[in-house]
Amino acid sequence: MNMTFLQELFNSITQRDALLRRRQGEIVAPDHAQLIKACHALLESDGEASSIALASRALAMYRQLGEEERRRFFECLETEFAAEPTDIDRAYATYREARNNANLQTLFDACEPRRQELFRRLNLASNGTYELVRMREDLLGLLREPRSDGKELNAIDADFAHLFGSWFNRGFLMLKRIDWNTPASILEKIIRYEAVHEIRDWDDLRRRLDARDRRCFAFFHPAIGDEPLIFVEVALCKGLPDRIQPILSGESAGERDIDDPEAADAAAFFGISNCQTGLRGISFGNFLIKQVVQELKQELPQLKHFVTLSPVPGFSQWLASCRTDESLPAELRRTLEGLDSPDWHRDPEQSDRLKAIIKPLAARYLVEEKNSRGLPLNPVARFHLGNGAELKRINWLGDVSAKGLKQAEGLMVNYLYVLDDIERNHENYIANATVACSSEVRDLNRRARKMAKGENIK
Amino acid sequence: MNMTFLQELFNSITQRDALLRRRQGEIVAPDHAQLIKACHALLESDGEASSIALASRALAMYRQLGEEERRRFFECLETEFAAEPTDIDRAYATYREARNNANLQTLFDACEPRRQELFRRLNLASNGTYELVRMREDLLGLLREPRSDGKELNAIDADFAHLFGSWFNRGFLMLKRIDWNTPASILEKIIRYEAVHEIRDWDDLRRRLDARDRRCFAFFHPAIGDEPLIFVEVALCKGLPDRIQPILSGESAGERDIDDPEAADAAAFFGISNCQTGLRGISFGNFLIKQVVQELKQELPQLKHFVTLSPVPGFSQWLASCRTDESLPAELRRTLEGLDSPDWHRDPEQSDRLKAIIKPLAARYLVEEKNSRGLPLNPVARFHLGNGAELKRINWLGDVSAKGLKQAEGLMVNYLYVLDDIERNHENYIANATVACSSEVRDLNRRARKMAKGENIK
Amino acid sequence: MNMTFLQELFNSITQRDALLRRRQGEIVAPDHAQLIKACHALLESDGEASSIALASRALAMYRQLGEEERRRFFECLETEFAAEPTDIDRAYATYREARNNANLQTLFDACEPRRQELFRRLNLASNGTYELVRMREDLLGLLREPRSDGKELNAIDADFAHLFGSWFNRGFLMLKRIDWNTPASILEKIIRYEAVHEIRDWDDLRRRLDARDRRCFAFFHPAIGDEPLIFVEVALCKGLPDRIQPILSGESAGERDIDDPEAADAAAFFGISNCQTGLRGISFGNFLIKQVVQELKQELPQLKHFVTLSPVPGFSQWLASCRTDESLPAELRRTLEGLDSPDWHRDPEQSDRLKAIIKPLAARYLVEEKNSRGLPLNPVARFHLGNGAELKRINWLGDVSAKGLKQAEGLMVNYLYVLDDIERNHENYIANATVACSSEVRDLNRRARKMAKGENIK
Amino acid sequence: MNMTFLQELFNSITQRDALLRRRQGEIVAPDHAQLIKACHALLESDGEASSIALASRALAMYRQLGEEERRRFFECLETEFAAEPTDIDRAYATYREARNNANLQTLFDACEPRRQELFRRLNLASNGTYELVRMREDLLGLLREPRSDGKELNAIDADFAHLFGSWFNRGFLMLKRIDWNTPASILEKIIRYEAVHEIRDWDDLRRRLDARDRRCFAFFHPAIGDEPLIFVEVALCKGLPDRIQPILSGESAGERDIDDPEAADAAAFFGISNCQTGLRGISFGNFLIKQVVQELKQELPQLKHFVTLSPVPGFSQWLASCRTDESLPAELRRTLEGLDSPDWHRDPEQSDRLKAIIKPLAARYLVEEKNSRGLPLNPVARFHLGNGAELKRINWLGDVSAKGLKQAEGLMVNYLYVLDDIERNHENYIANATVACSSEVRDLNRRARKMAKGENIK
């Protein structure tokens, strides 16, 4: 292939790079057509020597594309780098005649979208893996937009997902403890990526991490260096914690305060945050929790309970729908109007009245309400139940922050990981969508059923 | 699926493991049928929770299989875990009707041998990657055997190669310097894996590594820990080295001895060893050399030449064929008989006579002789020329060890890596199988041509 | 000795510790008399087994003493743990009779204050070294107070200084680079200890550290872990920098902005901060600068100039005295009144007038004004000139912060470290208090002399 | 001071250095007079800038001195760098007049041999600490020689000991685990320094270190890098081990073999080796054992017994003296003649006869026999009893190697470290030289007493 073309292409890019750094804005960035040209060149490159250089160049070009050009680039990816129908037909015909491994291999290769090989080759560049993760992040952004007018960009996403599933294999992930001795370059990412309970600043971070009864662990991948993939925050406590505010403010968690970690009997997972949007659907959370449980048991053999203190996003919305559901008893719906008075949770009487009906309804929401695939409607429940955990307890006024009140009327939930039950719970969940739950939650759910029939409402 | 069966299976295995450790030999190991059953279970497993456990169990069973049982296991893999023809037919029919991405994806999935998903799931086990590399090593051993009577085990190898190509992506490899401060656990593997010039013991290793003018670098993969994948040994010197013995004995390399690394102008790569048979064909050597060149330039900016001192395996064999080639001048063939006298290389006159005709013949062998694919016959030449290096010099009596005399009548060769030429050389080699070589080698080759016609033989 | 007493003592302390943590303020802390008792016990202890425990206990007690009790403790140290006059007299008499090594050793031992052995034994406790450094910090605080009514606490300080000089030997110090990858636990100490130009918060720190043209290095001591002893901040630049504000705001330093470190030709030391008050007088600054120069030359061989951008504390005060010095020409003193107008430095005309006379006066201040020991009056000048640096340049409006204007009317100074001259400059400084300076500074000083005589004032 | 002289001196040394490396033997090394001159220059040097250079030069000269020149150097050190009698007299007179701290300080300084300041300054050189340790090693060698004709080199040794006691303070030592992942550069030193049971080669080392039931720990000092100061080898076992051979051969230690460390209940210290002769008398062994006990308890909380398997050097010699001691019963002495028959320990009957009397005699030797200072005659016993351990058990045929038979007729001993008793045992040992021992050992000793009176001998 023509190295001169490439060399010129490259020179023009890199010079432009330099210029861009100096006089931003004056220069016209490369367009998607140039990048597509570079991608073809990369796929046609017949050896490793030039492939690395070409991959680096292509990724550098991509970074300079504006949003609209990126969309066009993806659209070209979809059409120009798909599998070739005539190749498939020919390969199938041959396979049909002689069904041997060689012919099958040819057919398989013909069916593989050429994008997959393109992505594998882009991955040769230094930092290529991370750049591809960010490229998929861009793609997911486009997929969310309404105007994705029929263009089948989903196929590209499937290619990413296929490759990332292989590259972000559990065996390649490295668990690291995060604490106050962790490099600042990583800690600032923890601040940025915390998705459950916002970390405001370094002092806030320190309150969460730098106490004897706190732990934080993250997964890293060797090819993307200092970027955490997912992390979990843990508070050591005595008994199961029922409120998030004391934990976030750096006070002791759990029923009683503990002097030192050796006195704790429970580890509470109070925040699990995915860091890389571009790795959506490549799940590590399950492995993370289990590996962290092992680490903690190693360090503190006396720990007995591994439990979450989890939010219930979507519950308020569901509850609102109850209030307009005329099949429900009027009294019940009237009581729920108490939620409309401002600061209801600070009024003990009001709060008690609401608690008596909302806790049962929450049990019903979590245990009975299913989505179109027959799985629990609540996404956090899906995650933990799918991991084999058990729905242990519903905590009234567990999160009285604005966000907590807004999304779940202040409710929080404990999911319990009982090591001996995990496999069985998981199997039952997968096979029958069975929600493993404690007798306490079962009782609440039973009560909700009676309430719905007009019984039992005080 | 039935966890009880699996649990029992697992228990029986692990107990047996323990027993085996104690009273070796008395116990009957699991057979391939049990393992195949476990593999089916793993593929059918519907979640991560049990998959890890199942994968670990399956790999533990595999380790206990004897050689014959392993062969049978692979044979079952070939037949039972291939793609399903009826699925392919059905998917193709659908795709034919509506050629959209979803239907293509279904066809692609149908064509993928189920082994690939099996291997991906086995990789969930701790240390799974390394176990799979060793499993392929076993497979390659079986493939080499003559009695591979038609069984298409090659298809399994293709699956391994496909996955390993993705997992052992350049971006995931970590370059580490190996020296006398390296952990003994790694150094003992360097001793074991050195394939070019045997390292006899720890003292020998120390001679090679622990001098100011020596360097050694290896690639590691995060998922297989302390096992090096490939390593290269380097001697810093003044001028291009022409003999291996001074280097191996820890004397200074190169034309003149050097007091310190800063005085060197050349880095000589005198041994590149692949460590993992199971990664055959997954080439890192190319990347290794280029990354090491960068490391060395960083540390010692004054280095000018990056060169190998390489063996010429197969040359003696080719030369032997010349001696029976009646198209060659009789005088030439008679001179070659000098090789029959014992210790010919210690007899200066004899050696000079042979040198005059063997060096040209070697040039011819390396430059002109091609294999069935039109590439150089000599495998070491293929590797370095394919990387973009240039055949720089042929060294008479470069390796007078028994091995060196046996495989190449003592010849060694320098391949030169000229950074500015690498890409062009590589392109020409790929496109036209052009052998980049110095004028000195070209002259030798020209002389060989004349010799073949009976000219120029002194 | 009586372990029971000690055990009881210890128990009462540790229980109290625990109590104190719980109900702060209610408990009476131990008093100096108890601590002095524990110190005697430690000195009398006859073996290592109990010494470590005793040392830990004594240091724990010390930490609980209030300020007044600490003063009393030091007063007791001075009187009860000094050398014993009668021992000295006896030892001297014996030595006088027979002047041999054994008798000299006895005399030497008799003269050593018993505090030194006490401190050596306290150092057996974990973290003992750091606790002793902080103990000296307390002592220095007391020494500064006016009411140190004749008590010779200075003798205790001499004992500390003697031991610390040995313990904080250059060979034991470890140089570490500080950057954005440094653990947060260390970075927060950098924020706290920065003494020259305050670091406001983490963002400010990041601006100073986390750019390709910044470096920071600190000395650590193995026995006091994560606590830095001293650190220096460096900006890489082209040419000598003359203003501090662009450096602190994270803009490029030096005459022109630099794209990358490789383009820099100068390294500017713009902040050197001692971290441990308790190590006053144990100088590492000299070693630090020289070791950092070596590190930088190693990393960036093209660097040519190693220079400081230093404050001139005390200059404003000296200049104020000029204004009342009637021996100086009236015109000159009148011009200086310009400093009284607010924001004079923002008025170009005013500023130019002042510059014309203040720069020469600054040269005079730095070169000619000496303290009682005949050394430069300015402490920063003493430090760098004593290290062998040269006074290179006086920078008008180099620091226009409130602090910079207040202490030096905005002046900053460059001291230049020319490697080949360091030893000679140092020798001349030590022998003759010679101030090495550039011809530019010499000219300014000459001009100041003329100005003082009423010549040359525009 | 005259830098030109020094510069010349240095140049001549370093050039010579280079020459020496090239043409060894032709050049005359520097003599002690030159070195003494350099030492004076170092002491007179008035600043840090030149001191480091001077210290490096002086140490480089010392390294080149031959043995005889080193002796002369030490002799000059003794006379020329002692304290100055006239200074002492003057300082004492002043102190006598006014007994204040300042005058005491002056007297103290006058009494300090100038060597101490010299050594402190030599310590400024890179690697100075290690060079000084080796210098003392040379000195100790000279002190052992008979012809130390009256020269008081002991005073120099006292200076070294004084400084090293401060520099090798417990707080500065770093404990590191040594295993098969330790750098080879350190492991080769473990092989070299093992003093109790020789390590023959790397395979032997691996047998000792690289098993799940083995541990090894060493102390390092930050200023002397990779050189271990002392190390201890540990075998994890069930019950107290009684024979060294199974441990050394890599078999399991203890009564029963153990599958994994978690099954062990005892940690057996079977080799403690001091590595640096030059640090004789600066004891770390005590701290090492205690810190290792803590490490092990941390890792393996189930460990109950911390015990040594120790040699009994000197016992054979003492036993030989018994055989000529006519106060002992003739029958007893006759039985001991059994030791003269070759391979007596392989003859069960013979062995049993000897065991019956030798074990009691060993108890007596260890418990009753004292040296001139009233402490146990056996040095290993002194070490462990001084640390607070208890003499637990005497093991017949515990070490049947040639060395073991020669020094102790094959006996080995267990000293037990009972954490709660350590302090009390230590106190009793220091105060009353009490030997803490088990009832078993006490019984044996009692029996020995009866045997001596002619009772109880079978």
Automatic annotation (TrEMBL), chains A, B, C, D:
<dbReference type="GO" id="GO:0006633">
    <property type="term" value="P:fatty acid biosynthetic process"/>
</dbReference>
<protein>
    <submittedName>
        <fullName>MCD, Malonyl-CoA decarboxylase MCD</fullName>
    </submittedName>
</protein>
<feature type="domain" description="Malonyl-CoA decarboxylase C-terminal">
    <location>
        <begin position="171"/>
        <end position="417"/>
    </location>
</feature>
<dbReference type="Pfam" id="PF05292">
    <property type="entry name" value="MCD"/>
</dbReference>
<dbReference type="InterPro" id="IPR042303">
    <property type="entry name" value="Malonyl_CoA_deC_C_sf"/>
</dbReference>
<dbReference type="InterPro" id="IPR035372">
    <property type="entry name" value="MCD_N"/>
</dbReference>
<dbReference type="InterPro" id="IPR038917">
    <property type="entry name" value="Malonyl_CoA_deC"/>
</dbReference>
<feature type="domain" description="Malonyl-CoA decarboxylase N-terminal">
    <location>
        <begin position="81"/>
        <end position="168"/>
    </location>
</feature>
<dbReference type="InterPro" id="IPR007956">
    <property type="entry name" value="Malonyl_CoA_deC_C"/>
</dbReference>
<dbReference type="InterPro" id="IPR038351">
    <property type="entry name" value="MCD_N_sf"/>
</dbReference>
<dbReference type="Pfam" id="PF17408">
    <property type="entry name" value="MCD_N"/>
</dbReference>
<dbReference type="GO" id="GO:0050080">
    <property type="term" value="F:malonyl-CoA decarboxylase activity"/>
</dbReference>
